[in-house]
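FORM 7B: Structural annotation worksheet

SECTION A. Query
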Amino acid sequence: MITPDEAELCYPHLGNYSCRRIVRPHSVYVLLYIILSSISVLTVTLNLLVIIAISHFKKLHSPTNFLLLSLAVSDFCVGFIFIFDILLLDNCWYLSAGWCMFHVVLSIIVPTASTGSIVLISIDRYIAVCDPLHYPTKVTVNRANISVVLCWFCSALYTLGLLENIKHPGGFNSCIGECMPLMHPVVIILDIFLTLIFPAIVIIILYVRVFVVAVSQARAMLSHVAVVKLQGSVKVNKSELKAARVLGVVVVVFLLCYTPAYLVSSLYGTLSTFYFVKCLYYFNSLLNPMIYVFFYPWFRKCVKYILSLQILKSGSSQHTVKRESC
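SECTION B. Predicted structure
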């Protein structure tokens, strides 16, 4: 018969070698599983729609949209990572040490690549708004694709060098049933700087510059300073500024969702608190495609086209879609 103390262990038959589990009422577990599973499914589904839309429709094959595709891929992966975190609701890991390491590595590579994609998108918008005449030559599809590949490669390389227990899965666990990354305190501080503080500074500086240019252009248009010859470029800048505003919303949501998780992890908060902010951290991946749905008519049009299975028709990739940068 299992005693109350043994009921709080992940592996009761191992006694003190087992990690302690978080005991919650059954109704709370059911509610959490339903909510978190729904978030996971929605995250995977919505980001899959973004991936299909940009990949399938050739009219959307622009440098900015390929950077957005990278962000959607990372958000899509987050939906699967979330499944592992649902398994950790009671603070117990019941899968093998190899799967634990896979989860840990993926949970660092994907958010790091997501942050890198956000930075690349910010740079893209900065060049498009602040240097529109040279944008077509500076930012090409090939350069965007190379940037995306380098972003993911550096994220993987960074993650492999970050973890101390990568070569010995489960060898440094304090108890059986634990699945946590092992990092030196100095490395944790360095990680916070490289994956949050530094990217946030770069993003904020770029968007402040974009905002200043947007305001100056608006004033110039209102005071009729713009020369007639520049009307064409001003029209282009309007669409670029619209894209910059939408991506500005993406960046703000990104910072609001990611900052609490990094602050709590650096301060070694309690597990329950950390789990809440970790969910907020992953919830950002669900919000991104929802932002596109609300702000971009072309995305809603693509979704209808995909869900009606019209993309299976011959020549559907050439379907006319309003070509806007995301």
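SECTION C. Observations
The two ends are 60 Å apart (CA to CA). The domain at 24-220+230-318 is CATH 1.20.1070.10 (Rhopdopsin 7-helix transmembrane proteins).

SECTION D. Sign-off
Analyst initials: ____
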